Amino acid sequence: MVIAAQSYADGDAEGVALVLAAPLSFWGGVDVESGRIIDHSHPDLGQVITGRILVMPGGRGSSSASSVFAESIRRGSGPAGIILAIADPILTVGALVAHSLYGLRCPVVVCSIDRLITDRHVRIRTTEDGRAEVFSEDGN
User: Fold this and answer.
1) Cα–Cα nearest to 30, from 58, 67, 81, 57
2) Residues forming the active site
3) DSSP state of 100
4) What gap in Å lies between CA 66 and CA 40, rounded to an integer?
5) To the nearest whole number, what is the mean pLDDT of the chain?
6) Which pTM value belongs to this model?
7) How many Cα neighbours within 13 Å face the side chain of 140?
8) Cβ distance 86 to 57 under 8 Å?
9) Using CA atoms, how far apart are residues 57 and 87, in angstroms rounded to an integer?
10) What is the pLDDT of residues 92-120, one digit of tens each?
11) Which of 1, 15, 64, 71 could bond 27 through an S-S bridge, CB–CB 3.0 to 4.6 Å?
């Protein structure tokens, strides 16, 4: 299946999807050393985001989450890419900062996420004009 998307932070990525049930804040929600979700109120507590295509409804503040996200990218404990249902400027800034400071990309795109399934292979492709495509196994 191919889903048209809008790119907020450029890059290409692929990996296994981790579809979260709720928005996640990187500030206090993710351990940057292990990539594990540590927010005890999050329904996906204990899941590891490292190298995954992180799929979620949106981000969840605070503004400090962008620096934690950028640090997770630098350390290699962050996701390979992020797919959101609703744009999130904080995650976008984190991805842009990681690229600017460390030369590392983690694409952030927005599209419909209702057909994406955990543990299915997903690929993100972006273009310089802000368009993107998400390719996913359809489960059939």
Assistant:
1) 67
2) 62
3) H
4) 20
5) 95
6) 0.95
7) 3
8) yes
9) 9
10) 999 999 999 999 999 999 999 999 999 99
11) 64
